[in-house]
């Protein structure tokens, strides 16, 4: 008689907490967040077209297909679009995952218990296009802030992320934020914050 295959068990003392890792947002930013880049390359196309048109007025060049100059910005416009749609965000009550890259994909994770402050910023252009920046300021000196820009329902998301940061910091109580808690140094050293 064969024994059933071993099941993966959660570590001792931890209980599965599906509620605390609920997904707050998953997807790409709005295209309007990238409007400046798109307009820049459209401008390059228009400029190229005008230069091409101007050069066509020279009789010696009139036989050349100079209209192609109006396409000069198209590859970069397509690249900007690809970069945008290949940058995906997954924001949960525990972490923010950012996946970017057209040719090579890179996944960055920011644990919310490492976040010290959450800021919300909008300028006039953002208000016109209904965008905002949610800035997460963390403890990592090499990469101190993560900017989430152009995420839909930004105001509600900001409030939920801010609450999630408070919750994550209180439940994890990592060593660098809350040293010297009542003798549970083992918890703090592992940083997993599960209480036995």
Can you offer a commentary on this structure?
The chain has about 200 residues and is of the alpha+beta class. It contains five helices and seven strands. The strands form two sheets. It has a four-stranded antiparallel beta sheet. The C terminus is likely disordered.
The major beta sheet can be summarized as: 4 strands, antiparallel
Question: If you average the pLDDT, what whole number results?
Answer: 84
* CATH topology annotation: PH-domain like
How many structurally independent domains? 1
From the spread of the alpha carbons, the general shape counts as elongated
Q: What is the radius of gyration computed over CA atoms, rounded to a whole number of angstroms?
A: 25 Å
Order of helices and strands: EHHEEEEHEEHH
- CATH class membership: Mainly Beta
Descriptive keywords:
PH-domain like; 7 strands; 196 residues; disordered C terminus; 5 helices; 4-stranded antiparallel sheet; alpha+beta; 3-stranded antiparallel sheet
In short:
It contains five helices and seven strands.
Layout of helices and strands:
Elements: E1 23-28, H1 35-56, H2 74-85, E2 88-92, E3 95-100, E4 106-111, E5 115-121, H3 124-129, E6 133-138, E7 145-149, H4 154-172, H5 185-190
Antiparallel strand pairs: 1-2, 2-3, 3-4, 5-6, 6-7
